[in-house]
Amino acid sequence: MPHLYFYYTLPQDANYWVNIDSTIDRKIEAASKQVSQFEPSIHKYRPDWDAADLESLRTGMKARAAKKDGHFVEAFRHATGFNQQ
């Protein structure tokens, strides 16, 4: 039976979670490398981070990260039962 896992699902549609406690900091670090995608660089580009802005980004991303049972998680919609003719 095929299994599909959909990422960027609505919170109420999620039915499968992967614990990312051990990688949340690496995920945030990777996202922070795209300086131009965050303020203040969106409106006034700079190629690197001011230390205070970077810390604010890290704090904000952790605060908004999905959590389940006290753990950081990635949420997915798991689906099965597709017609495979």
Task: Provide tags for this entry.
about 80 residues; alpha+beta; 4-stranded antiparallel beta sheet
Explain the overall architecture:
Strands 1, 2, 3 and 4 form a 4-stranded antiparallel sheet that branches. The radius of gyration is 17 Å and the shape is elongated. It has one domain (3-80). The chain is α+β, with helices and mostly antiparallel strands and 85 residues long. Helix 1 crosses helix 2. A hairpin with a 2-residue loop joins strand 3 (67-68) and strand 4 (71-80). Helix content is 27%, strand content 24%. It has helices at 24-32, 51-64, and strands spanning 3-6, 16-19, 67-68, 71-80.
Secondary-structure element string: EEHHEE
* pLDDT averaged residue by residue: 89
Structural class: alpha+beta
Distance between the termini: 12 Å
What is the beta-strand fraction?
15-25%
In percent, how helical is the residue content? Answer: 25-40%
Q: What sort of overall outline do the alpha carbons produce when their principal axes are compared?
A: elongated
Give the total of domains.
Answer: 1
- What assembly state would you assign to the polypeptide chains in this entry? single chain
Number of helices: 2
Biggest β-sheet strands, sense, barrel: 4 strands, antiparallel
Poorly predicted spans: none
